[in-house]
DNA sequence: GAGTGGATACTCGGATAGGATCTGTCCGAGTGTCACCGG
DNA sequence: CCGGTGACACTCGGACAGATCCTATCCGAGTATCCACTC
């Protein structure tokens, strides 16, 4: 029950893209965060497949957020990278063994599955309440100085 | 982000142990649920290490709940099998790269980590609200007939 | 000087190895039970 | 008939392979840019 490490990278990238005014290449994002460029590219591909970011090819290409940062929740990013599958999968072991309950009596999930599903919903609800724009605002207030502004400026500088 | 399959087995075993009046061997629990006996034993060892169940060796040995089912939460079982590690680990990538924020400004977790930790807390809180006794009661009301009574009787029968 | 064509350099995308964790299995250590033997 | 002793059978516990998923990497497909050439 450990979240993939790529989730953290993807979230940071989304926040950074908030401060960008033009497409940002994956290599640039990797350099900024000091992580593997090729592996980060894989995460960004996941975001692209999920429709959270739009990729533009060519010389001045890169990634751009497809919609407003307020309309992208943290849950969207997590599900894009991690997959939409639930954290708990019930294998219906109550229908196995010598004391198996008949399938006709198994219309509703069992008590254990209900409990796990409820916890899963609570987790997702907490992630859905926060948007990428919220994260961006938090970053802005956490530190002194215009961090996001400096970030946008660094993205525009050529090396 | 997928929960280990052994969690489901462990939870079912805890509910079954509620209906038992004497130690139940791992092999018996495996037969009841129709799962691998050796692998289930591994999960029960985790429960034993966590102090949720007490193991008695010898001929009439097996596993017994150490405390009242009301005092064992679902979270206890999940953490026993899955480990107490949080679902999200922050690698502090904000301190890396050319725009790294100095370590002196990183006294509090970053916005992303805070959000993920909050979701983790919500998930754990939902699991903590339900006890094994609650599960047992739910199972009793879900189906017609005294399912737990039949279960206890089956456990006492020798094959 | 303006337009056009092509070469170029840069970007993303999917297919490809390596490592770690989860799943599943095995055999040895420990203990209560039972039968047997002696008093 | 009762107590002691020994062997036994049954249990758990940790050490050992196999499978699956995560991590990391590479090379090919596609496109906007730039430059040279022509009109």
Automatic annotation (TrEMBL), chains A, B:
A single cellular component GO annotation: cytosol
Residue runs in coiled coils: none
GO MF terms held by the record: DNA-binding transcription factor activity
Taxonomy, superkingdom: Bacteria
NCBIfam families: rrf2_super (TIGR00738)
PANTHER family membership: TRANSCRIPTIONAL REGULATOR-RELATED, WINGED HELIX-TURN-HELIX TRANSCRIPTIONAL REGULATOR, RRF2 FAMILY
Name recorded for this polypeptide: Rrf2 family transcriptional regulator
Source species: Amycolatopsis bartoniae
Lineage of source species: Bacteria, Bacillati, Actinomycetota, Actinomycetes, Pseudonocardiales
């Amino acid at each position: 029950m450990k979240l993939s490490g790529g989730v953290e990278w993807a979230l940071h990238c989304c926040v950074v893209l908030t401060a960008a005014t033009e497409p940002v290449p994956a290599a640039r994002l990797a350099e900024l965060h000091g992580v593997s460029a090729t592996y980060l590219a894989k995460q960004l591909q996941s975001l692209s497949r999920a429709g959270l970011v739009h990729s533009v090819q060519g010389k001045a290409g890169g990634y751009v957020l497809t919609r407003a940062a307020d309309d992208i929740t943290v849950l969207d990013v997590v599900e894009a990278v991690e997959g939409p599958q639930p954290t708990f999968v019930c294998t219906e072991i109550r229908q196995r063994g010598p004391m198996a309950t008949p399938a006709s009596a198994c219309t509703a999930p069992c008590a254990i599955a209900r409990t796990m599903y409820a916890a899963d919903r609570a987790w997702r609800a907490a992630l859905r309440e926060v948007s990428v724009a919220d994260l961006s605002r938090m970053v802005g207030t956490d530190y002194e100085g215009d961090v996001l502004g400096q970030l946008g400026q660094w993205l525009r500088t050529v090396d």
